[in-house]
Write a structure and sequence with these properties.
The protein is α+β, with helices and mostly antiparallel strands. It has five domains: 134 residues, 3-Layer(aba) Sandwich (Rossmann fold), CATH 3.40.50; 155 residues, Topoisomerase I, domain 2; 132 residues, Topoisomerase I, domain 3 (Distorted Sandwich); 126 residues, Topoisomerase I, domain 4, CATH 1.10.290; 98 residues, no CATH class. It is built from 20 helices and 26 strands. A six-stranded antiparallel beta barrel has the order 9-10-16-15-12-17. Helix 4 crosses helix 6, helix 9 packs across helix 13 and helix 9 runs antiparallel to helix 14. 37% of the residues are buried.
């Protein structure tokens, strides 16, 4: 720190002999910041939030303007005690949690805990953990933004009201241990509705008709190209059956194919904006096969700091929870210097690129970009893990390319008539790579560019082969991490900080599961969703949930009062809860199906719901506690084992284990993996053989 950036001491602070205290959330962040600030400063971590609502009750004083009953969280008392002790001796205290709602709330709670111990308490905010950014933040120290605190507080209270009101109803009607959430339940509804659309989908037949052509000039005999049937009598053609395809084929077979139009024009390909949180999660899933949770975990590490040897510990990317595409002037300037020196003047636009954020974006944040100075991925490769390097490279290329000029293609469109039928052929040639030069070796178009020989209007071309092909319309695809995050963002549900936790929560609660790369609802998820849709349609209504997010933004912007927002929601919601309680008063849980006889007591074994899904239990519970999992029907491929594979849950996700555990300890990540194991052992039991139909790659998660 320079003399200028040292804090101004009050008279009381000047008498203290301690260091300047800086409080952050995580140990990794504290380590990086401490190295930047030096010996005059002590940086300690809270390990996240230090206070929260109590677990054993609602924790909201509804008669006192919805005042929350905050308590120091379990396991956090020792951190609070240390912060108070250090604050008492410190010359000044700097609250440096993340620059978002959650970070602001953490700072506010810390300030409340130490208000008797410290006089000079400041809030500092930075979007990247580098020496320049830290210095600037301390020079521009300020106070807590209560609008952000109130927005976070309102969000927390709304989630508590929904969760603690609905969960008991789920316990009563389905099983104990279940829970509902304001955003999570909407995500489950999306997955369930997509699954229902897939089930009800009926494929429709259609046909395409392509023709392989060449010029009549023998010199171009090898330059064949394909044209597609697009129109009949100048109207767009829809060939629905084989009979229609055969008719079209018979009518064009003897026709002359004459070129009627040759259009060549330049087409620009524009660079994309730097990453926001949701787009980074989508790209990391599609290109790197990372789940949303894994992406955020790695991004957090890159933001908090990486040891770069002699350079020290440095944050490599800016704050990774953002919905803004804004870039600082310093970053624009350095990008220009890098692009011009590395690629040349023609690769930098005459006017710096500007991108427009979404209407609800918080423009106080920057987009996700590499910190300054720009460090090429190759220069930091030896300090990063393989996954860190992959994600850093993704961020680095996206930012640098976003500041470059457009790529330019020469696009050719050819119209060829054969009697009443019109065919089209097309091709493109890259004539200036522009921003694509950053991605050399990567095909961003998704397909190879097609080459077409030179053609002239009224030139006759020769058909070589006709290719009629049958197709069927496809059901909508299941959601992946990428597409579900995109859908939530498009609908205005959730915010950058919530996408990954939301997906993780609904999987952990066993409401949806990953089948390879795709999300499917579990039976439990469908049952819970049906109940919520029928009884609490507003809670899982997409537009209503989006409006609530908008209300939280209004609180953060100082345009709405947090207690009014909470009160308006509560008044309507609690009346609905009480109404449902009355209507369901005499309802009982679904009648359980009998599943054989208990081998211990002879009473019927029945299906029951649990937090992990269905299981089979003795109807004599609790006198008889005999219970077992429902198997997948796939025989265990372990040698000399008569068990079947059972889906189980662990901290790291779901897997399949043998029903004979602990006598048999066979496990597999998927049924497909079990099938491969069986094949390697020369086994081919029918059930395992059927599992071989499971295809695709598993998403890399924890």
């Amino acid at each position: 720190m320079t003399e200028k950036s040292k804090p101004v001491k009050s008279k009381k602070a000047a008498e203290k002999s301690g260091k300047y205290l800086v409080v952050v959330e995580s140990p990794a962040k504290s380590k990086t910041i401490n190295k930047i600030l030096g010996k005059e400063y002590k940086v300690i971590a809270t390990m996240g939030h230090i206070v929260d609502l109590p677990h054993d009750r609602m924790g909201i004083d509804f008669d006192n303007n919805f005042k929350p009953e905050y308590r120091v969280m379990k396991g956090r008392a020792k951190y609070v005690k240390e912060i108070k002790k250090e604050a008492k001796a410190a010359k000044a205290v700097y609250l440096a949690a993340d620059p978002d709602r959650e970070g602001e709330a953490i700072c506010w709670h810390i300030q409340n805990e130490i208000k008797k111990a410290a006089e000079d308490v400041y809030r500092v905010r930075f979007g990247e953990i580098t020496a320049n950014a830290i210095k600037k933040a301390f020079d521009e120290k300020g106070s807590i933004d209560m609008n952000k605190v109130n927005a976070q507080q309102a969000r927390r209270l709304l989630d508590r009201i929904v969760g603690y009101s609905l969960s008991p109803l789920l316990w009563r009607l389905i099983a104990r241990g279940l829970s509902a959430g304001r955003v999570q339940s909407v995500a489950v509804r999306l997955v369930v509705e997509r699954e229902n659309a897939i089930r009800s989908f009926k494929p429709e037949e259609y046909w395409s008709l392509d023709v392989l052509l060449r010029k009549s000039d023998p010199a171009y005999a090898e330059k064949k190209f394909i044209a597609k049937l697009v129109k009949y009598k100048h109207e767009k053609v829809h060939v629905k059956t084989k009979e229609e395809a055969d008719k079209a084929l018979s009518e064009v077979t003897d026709q002359k194919f004459v070129v009627k139009e040759v259009l060549r024009k330049e087409k620009k390909s524009y660079p994309r904006a730097p990453y926001t949180t949701s787009v980074l999660q989508q790209d990391a899933f599609n290109k790197l096969n990372f789940s949303a949770s894994k992406t955020m975990r790695i991004a957090q590490g890159l933001y908090e700091g990486v040891d770069l040897g002699e350079e020290g510990t440095v944050g490599l990317i800016t704050y990774m929870r953002t919905d803004s595409v804004r870039v600082s002037e310093d970053a624009v300037k350095e990008a220009k210097e890098y692009i011009v020196s590395r690629y040349g003047e023609k690769y930098y636009p005459s006017v710096p690129a500007q991108y427009k954020s979404g209407k609800s974006a918080q423009e106080g944040h920057e987009a996700i970009r590499p910190t300054l100075p720009l460090r090429e991925p190759g220069h930091v490769e030896k300090y990063l893990t393989a996954d860190e390097l992959k994600l850093y490279t993704l961020v680095w290329k996206r930012f640098v390319s976003s500041q470059m000029v457009n790529a330019v293609y020469s696009v050719l469109a050819v119209r060829i008539d054969a009697g009443d039928y019109t065919f089209r052929a097309g091709g493109a040639e890259l004539i200036f790579d522009g921003f694509l030069c950053v991605y050399r070796g990567e095909n961003l178009l998704g397909e190879e560019l097609k080459e077409i020989p030179p053609l002239a209007v009224e030139e006759e071309v020769l058909p070589i082969e006709f290719v009629p092909e049958q197709h069927f319309t496809k059901a909508p695809p299941r959601y992946t991490d990428a597409t579900l995050v995109k859908e939530l963002e498009l609908r205005g549900i959730g915010r950058p900080s919530t996408y990954a936790p939301t997906l993780k929560t609904v999987v952990d609660r066993n409401y949806i599961k990953r089948v390879q790369r795709y999300f499917q609802p579990t039976e439990l998820g469908e049952v819970v969703n049906t109940l919520l849709v029928e009884q609490f349609p507003e809670i899982v209504d997409y537009e209503f949930t989006a409006r609530m997010e908008s209300d939280l933004d209004s609180i953060e912007d100082g345009k709405a009062n947090w207690s009014n927002i909470v009160g308006s929601f509560y008044a309507h919601f609690i009346n609905k809860v009480e109404s449902v309680k009355v209507s369901l008063k005499d309802m009982k849980k679904q009648q359980a199906k009998e599943q054989g006889t208990c081998e211990l007591c002879g009473r019927p074994m029945i299906e029951k719901w649990g937090r992990r899904g269905k299981f089979i239990s003795c109807s004599g519970f609790p006198e008889c506690r005999n219970a077992r999992s429902i198997t997948s029907g796939v025989k265990c491929p372990a040698e000399n084992c008569a068990g079947e594979l059972v889906e189980r849950k662990s901290r790291k996700g779901s897997f399949y284990g043998c029903s004979k555990f602990p006598n048999c300890r066979f496990t597999a990540k998927t049924l497909a993996d079990a099938a491969k194991f069986a094949a390697a052992k020369g086994q081919a039991p029918d059930a395992v053989q059927a599992a071989e139909t499971v295809e695709g790659s598993t998403v890399e998660d924890e």
